């Protein structure tokens, strides 16, 4: 019998492909699941199974799959000007129009964008940019950037170093010098007996201790996701961000808010910084910028920082695909859709409250120690004992739950024993009901 099409693709994967974040031996033994098409909030695999994508791809397909306007924008731009660079005193209309559109939706006083090809490149850029900034200001010794354990800022050398994923640090002798980490504001996992706000203040105060330990004149910036995504949808207690801001102001340290996940409506505000009322100095962006239809990222920069950069001569930094015209045209159209269809406003007023109400119901499930969420983000902590928050000793419970989800037509991701969702912002209430019914069924199967 000849191989099926799926088996042929799986063989191609085994024989020729090295996929990201994969254990190759396990993957090759099982065979990759092949996704062939998508529409709205659904995917279809090569076996014809319909799957509700509660992760919006990788937290990015904010306007949902199948938006013809984005296809049109890309093909129009490819015909007009498929490529040109922004180096050496040139520019092109799509990148300029996009920079202006981004300035219109980002927090007040953030009016310039440096374009990159991804979120990781945005974080490489931000590291170089803050060091360049302090050097121009005559304080070149202000070089150290403080990040957080279990934060995620990408997979390039700078991205991994700024992030606090210890398993990633372990591969490749990272972090690079000049980067320090403090604890994350993960109350459920690390808060002990403290109430959330007391814990929030306690972890924020670690920032001050780290500043004093390294030397207050040596710290360039603090980098953090407004809500940690890849770390497990970790929502800081209310006390956390105000305390962090107070400390940064005291020591004249820049705030880098990594908005790669939280940006473009995920929290029900345009940016996670809006949700928390923060005023960052630099914001790496990507993902929702193009709703994932084409790769693109960038760093949005506060006016005061730009004024200094303007005085600093050439910034020796950039990418062949910085502000790529086709990506810029798609991003511009994506922002037009988000604005004209009032998607962010609808998330805030209707979709997110409905999702969060239904999500909170899962807290009653015997396996769930906490059901938390903000906007279109949600997490479930799987526990053996709800009262004591004791974890399962079986390390694979999250993975088991994730596999049940896939087998039952749902993409939900596992971060250890934390199950997470981040569905397209355009998901309907009926689809949320379907999502919840599937999650419940998969929890039952996992129990
Ligand atoms: N920053 C955050 C907060 C992310 O979640 C990610 C990716 O998940 C990145 C940066 C890296 O983005 P990319 O995968 O586009 O390089």
Give your account of this protein's structure.
This protein is an alpha/beta fold. The chain contains 17 helices and 15 strands. A 4-stranded mixed β-sheet has the order 1-2-3-13. It is globular. InterPro entries: Aminotrans_3, Aminotrans_3_PPA_site, PyrdxlP-dep_Trfase, PyrdxlP-dep_Trfase_major, PyrdxlP-dep_Trfase_small.
Radius of gyration: 22 Å
What number is the mean pLDDT?
Answer: 97
Total beta-strand segments: 15
Q: In what range is the share of β-strand residues?
A: 15-25%
Query: What's the helix count?
Result: 17
Q: Which small-molecule ligands are present, each listed once?
A: pyridoxal-5'-phosphate
Distance between the termini: 39 Å
Shape: globular
List segments where confidence is low: pLDDT < 50 over at least 5 consecutive residues. none
Largest sheet entry:
4 strands, mixed
Strand order of the largest sheet: 1-2-3-13
Secondary-structure-derived class: alpha/beta
Helix content: 40-55%
Which keywords apply here?
about 450 residues; alpha/beta; globular; binds pyridoxal-5'-phosphate
